[in-house]
Specification:
3 domains, 12 helices, homodimer, 339 residues, five-stranded antiparallel sheet, Beta-Lactamase, Arc Repressor Mutant, subunit A, three-stranded antiparallel sheet, DNA-binding, Enolase-like, domain 1
Chain lengths: 339, 339
DNA sequence: GTTAGCACTCTCATTGGTTGAGTGCTAACT
DNA sequence: AGTTAGCACTCAACCAATGAGAGTGCTAAC
């Protein structure tokens, strides 16, 4: 009647159970293991081992005459091994898949979220860390009908923002172009903060039209604000419907509404210091996420700043595959955005 | 035993049934009408009228002891009256709601889709018509690390595209800036097609680095291709889960997968010549959309070109409200994008 | 033309019985 | 001691039967 220790065979059986459960989402019975995985052992033996594994907290039974289901503790063991032995290797297929569909630098993040979700068939989350001290690269005014103009600011990191402002009706395309040139010449290389500060001084020289200055100041401050906070993008949120654990619409809705709360998402993603992180159900603390897992990989953007790509899905997840897919796409992102 | 004609009272009752059904999604019984809507009539009388309405094809019974459910024909009648009497008025609240959340001209369409879906709580679809003969307004090269540069093209309509290209390592920021200025000077005002044609001639003058020219040509051709096709954006697709008719996950998934087929969506949206259009379930021909309705309003972009904003939801829909919301947002869009 | 009354129908929820999967335990086997 | 066959036991899932409730259609009276 001693507490039975966990040995190699138990571990093999546990892994088999996890593998099967990940595949089918159905409780796994002793017969199944005996037939598909450990063919040299009888179901009775497996039953004994399973009983031990349950006592150790690695397995659970939905009810007495059902098979076993891996517990969070089991996944944790499995994942730890995965992370320990040899680490995570990049999935070149995932990387390629992603690289091929980035058409636009301006929305790499969106593309990444979409690529991850398409590739893994899970819900993807991509976090872009805040960037202070963005520097202006170009400033452009484009004529629009009826005394309006499109103001575009591009930073040295390739971030692009635009807005419509009102300008004097007497300004034609050439006039706007001249102003654009002058502004770009003077403001290029400055940080957004500096731009805001400097604008006051210029307002007289440009020709009395304070609205242009005001518009630039507004857009610059909007950009500064936006870039000073971590942002997060979700892709393929409805992939969750592919999984039987969310065949209940209420559950699916609850899941989706968590995705709307960006702050929570950022907290979930950015918790870890490591390159890879797997948080399994209850480990997250949030009761509404108790039967989800979050897998993340970090990527490098600029010196020291790290962003995260991740996947949210049911606890039952092929962690190995997901990790290497994320690693591949994270690697590609680092190359595109990193210093 | 004559075919009973449809009179004013029948119509009132029909409307009451529709109203109640839109609210509750439950078959409406004669008692309900007698108590909540036509308090001066007994349920028996209502029953007689309902029987007539059923014979006329305006009502249907899920089964013999259930209440009645409006048929597509009933909605059609209702909607036709709605459209005839006084037309659709813009909902200023919807308009305001939308206007306040357009921050970026570059993605008005996305903002519109999001605003519509948030405001109406249905799935929103926004179609942007193709635009031929886009003219280049600015062309900009921004230095990036390791012999790369970000190429940005902005058109006179405010469309912005960017891509990363490789450039000679010897080109620094100033060099790129000079090239940008030269290119903009020569190419501004040209159509994308012209730009592609002209590029060959310049390649020698710029300094032998064919990759820049090639990059611009590629991006221009990509833009031309993109802008020459109608594009469609979906917003709030998971709003569909709010409605009991999609409490079955399979149905919800089928619905969502229709939204992925952009060509079908475009066909659905752009069918009508009128300012407003309501297509009810079977009227669309697509069997997978048999119990959906599509409501659209058109908006003006440039001279003659029309785009569409729309909502897709269950046939049971408050058409009046949806129409005026779309009208409001469509109006705002026309003002922003129209000539 | 309207209404009360009543028989009728059909869904939905509940109950009880049956089936099948899967376990735990014991006793025999290696 | 570890492994296995065998068997009793448990419980979810399925099915049929039953009863309640909602709503109708029809008839006869107002």
């Amino acid at each position: 009647m001693e507490i039975p220790p966990i040995d190699a065979r138990k571990e093999r059986i546990l892994r088999a159970i996890i593998d099967d459960y990940v595949l089918t989402a159905l409780p796994v019975g002793s017969r199944t293991i005996s037939r598909k995985y450990e063919t040299s052992l009888s179901s009775a033996t497996i039953r004994n081992e399973m009983s031990d594994l349950e006592e150790l907290g690695y397995l659970a039974q939905p009810h007495v005459s059902a098979g076993r289901v891996p517990s969070p503790k089991a996944y944790r063991l499995y994942v730890n091994e995965l992370l320990a032995q040899g680490g995570v290797k990049q999935d070149p297929e995932a990387r390629e898949f992603f690289s091929q569909r980035v058409r636009q630098m301006e929305d790499v993040v969106t593309s990444a979220a979409q690529a991850i979700s398409e590739f893994t068939r899970y819900t993807a989350v991509v976090m872009m860390p805040k960037q202070l001290d963005l520097r202006v690269s170009t400033l452009q005014l484009i004529p629009m009908p009826r005394g309006a103009a499109l103001l575009v600011i591009i930073t040295d990191t390739g971030a692009i923002r635009d807005t419509v402002i009102r300008v004097s009706e007497s300004l034609d395309g050439d006039g706007l172009y001249a102003i654009s040139r002058m502004l770009t010449e003077r403001l290029a290389g400055r940080t957004l903060q500096e731009v805001q500060e400097m604008l006051g001084a210029y307002s007289r020289q440009i020709g009395g039209d304070g609205r242009v200055i005001q518009g630039i100041a507004d857009l610059a401050s909007q950009m500064a604000r936006q870039s000073a906070t971590d942002t997060v993008t979700v892709g393929g949120s409805h992939n969750i419907l592919n999984y039987p654990e969310y065949s209940d619409v209420e559950k699916a809705r609850a899941f989706l509404s968590v995705l709307e709360e960006k702050e929570k998402l950022i907290a979930l993603l950015s918790g870890s210091e490591k390159a890879f992180s797997v948080r399994i159900g209850p480990e997250m603390g949030l009761p509404e996420m108790a039967d989800c897992s979050v897998v993340t990989a970090s990527y490098q953007v600029g010196q020291g700043h790290r962003g995260f790509v991740g996947v949210i899905g049911p606890t039952r997840m092929p962690y190995g595959k997901v990790l290497s897919a994320l690693s591949g796409i994270g690697g590609a992102l680092s190359d595109m955005l990193g210093e």
